Amino acid sequence: MELVKYPDPFLKKPTVEVADFGDELAQNAQEMLELMYGCKGIGLAGPQAGLDKSLVIINPSGKQEDELVLVNPQVVDFSGKDTFEEGCLSFPGIYSKIVRPSRISCIARTLDGREVSFDCNGLVARIVLHEADHLKGVLLVDRMSPAQRKAHQRELRRLRKEYNG
After folding, report:
1. Which residues in 30-50 are b (16+ Cβ under 10 Å) and which e?
2. Domain ranges for the chain
3. Which of 55, 66, 97, 124 could form a cystine bridge with 120, CB 3.0-4.6 A?
C-alpha cells in the first residue's frame, strides 16, 4: 500500500460504501495505520491509500489506544467555526488555514459492522472532517480560498510535475 498524492485523479473519485465487514477490511485498516504512521500523519482516508472504500483512520496523539477506525462515517450535525492550519499527506509540504465547524456529531460503523455515534470537537473534529472530505473527493486545495491557491501555486506545480500518472 502506497500513499496516493495530488494530482492523482483517484483522489477526486468518491468512495463506495463498505458492505463487507470481513477480514479484508480489517487488513486494509491495519495497512492504512502502518502507512499513516510511516508518513507521520494523524489521519488517512481510503483514497489516499489507493482504496475506493469509505474507510477512515485517525490518531491525533500517536498513542495506540487513541486509534480510531471509522467505516462509512457521516457527519450528521455540526456547530461553531474554527480556522486552523491544515496539512495533508497527499499534499506534502503544503499547509493552509481552513475554516471548519468546531464541533461535530458523527455516525459510523466499526470494523465488525457495529453502528457507533459520537460527538467530538477541536482537532479530532477537524481530522474527521478532513478525512470525510477525502471520501467525497474533496481535497485540501478545494477548501483553499483563491488567494491561498495562488500563494501555493509553486508547490502545487511541483506536485503536478512529480506526478507520474
Report:
1. eebbebbbeeebbbbbbbbbb
2. 9-162
3. 124
All three cell numbers of 10: 483517484
Q: CA 89, CA 68: separation in Å to the nearest integer?
A: 18
Query: What is the C-alpha to C-alpha distance for residues 161 and 98, in angstroms, rounded to an integer?
Result: 25
Q: What is the pLDDT of residues 127-162, one digit of tens each?
A: 999 999 999 999 999 999 999 999 999 999 999 999
**Which residue ranges in the chain fall short of pLDDT 70?**
165
**What distances in angstroms separate CA 69 from CA 8, 12, 33, 136, one per listed residue?**
24, 22, 9, 17
CA dihedral (88, 91, 96, 99) positive or negative:
negative
Query: Is 31 designated active site?
Result: no
The domain defined by 9-162 folds into: Peptide Deformylase (3.90.45)
Name the active-site residue from 17, 31, 131, 155.
Answer: 131
Q: C-alpha 158: how far from its chain's center?
A: 22
